[in-house]
UniProtKB/TrEMBL annotation:
One of its GO terms (molecular function) is oxidoreductase activity. It comes from the Bacteria. This is Para-aminobenzoate N-oxygenase AurF. Pfam families: AurF (PF11583).
Length: 306
């Protein structure tokens, strides 16, 4: 049980975030015009951030197919957002279960759960609106997520939250600023970016506190666990079923995407903020960092000593 006395510094961050939530929150049911028609032929995300951009498979698609694929890729990332938010909500509920309900930290965790409930509903409606074909993570991701939400402590919960929230945040900032893209995707992105900034602040504060409490052995075990989580989350960010929307074989298209330097760069750019934070804190360090480097997730940060 958390006491007010030992939680005072972190409580100040949570208190500020709670006040900000009360002033600046959206209700997507009201704030998005769900009846507005989609703009015909508009891309869901910028072409150069699509997984096949620059490959012969991309060159073989018509302009209309490229736009459709970009919408389906946005839908797939949105579906993975629902998956992740449900896992996070489970972890935050467990966090609040053990916390002092009079503390701002417990109350902010509950506020964040309420935010994520609205986000996941918004994401579900958006996927439906664009006729997204992907709704579920892979079978492995589904099982791993169930376990993650049920058992992990604050270090993995909040580092995992930071990783996925920064990944989505970076992609959504690009989408909301690009006026050529589908307005629905831009509005969903804008709402999410605003509210996620608070979640990331809370998670950073909690992660710093949790990380300090571990000794060297536990830290090394957590580095490997976070590495595994980052790899699974990045893999789940784009379901290969999206390629069927434009008549491509999902296996072949995924193989092409996995070796596409443009797509590798997009993922590395979106992961950069989380990776830099983890490196600064010493969470990315040593042998596990080599695994992340091989996966391309450190491509956008300066090389640091192992
Ligand atoms: Fe969210
Ligand atoms: Fe969030």
């Amino acid at each position: 049980m958390t006491t007010n006395a030992d939680s005072a510094p972190s409580d100040r961050v949570a208190e500020r975030l709670q006040r900000s939530s009360a002033k600046h929150s959206y209700d997507p049911d009201v704030d998005i015009d769900w009846d507005a028609p989609l703009v015909d032929g508009a891309y869901g995300k910028p072409a150069h951030r699509c997984s096949l951009y620059g490959t012969p498979l991309w060159e073989g698609l018509s302009e209309r197919q490229r736009a459709e694929l970009s919408m389906q890729e946005l839908g797939a990332s949105t579906a993975s957002g629902v998956w992740f938010e449900l896992i996070l909500m489970q972890g935050l509920t467990r966090y609040a279960y053990s916390a002092d309900p009079t503390s701002h930290r417990a109350q902010y965790a509950l506020t964040e759960i309420a935010d994520e409930c609205r986000h996941s509903t918004m994401f579900g409606k958006a996927i439906d609106k664009i006729d997204g074909i992907v709704h579920r993570p892979s079978r492995f991701g589904h099982r791993a997520g169930k376990l993650f939400g049920a058992v992990v402590g604050p270090t993995l919960l909040f580092s995992g939250a930071i990783y996925v929230e920064e990944l989505a945040d970076a992609m959504q900032r690009e989408i909301m600023r690009d006026e050529s893209l589908q307005p629905l995707g831009r509005m969903v992105s804008r709402i999410h970016v605003l509210e996620e900034a608070r979640h990331i602040s809370f998670a950073k504060d909690e992660l710093e506190r949790a990380w300090r409490s571990h000794g060297p052995l536990a830290r090394e075990a957590l580095r490997w666990a976070l590495t595994g989580m980052m790899l699974v989350a990045t893999e789940e960010f784009l379901h290969p079923k999206v390629y069927t929307s434009v008549g491509l074989d999902p296996r072949e298209a995924k193989r092409v995407a996995d070796s596409n330097p443009h797509w590798r760069q997009a993922k590395a750019d979106w992961a950069r903020k989380a990776v830099e934070l983890f490196a600064d804190m010493g969470i990315i360090r040593g042998p596990s960092s080599a695994v992340l480097r091989r996966a391309g997730l450190l491509d956008s940060v300066q090389r640091r000593p192992a």
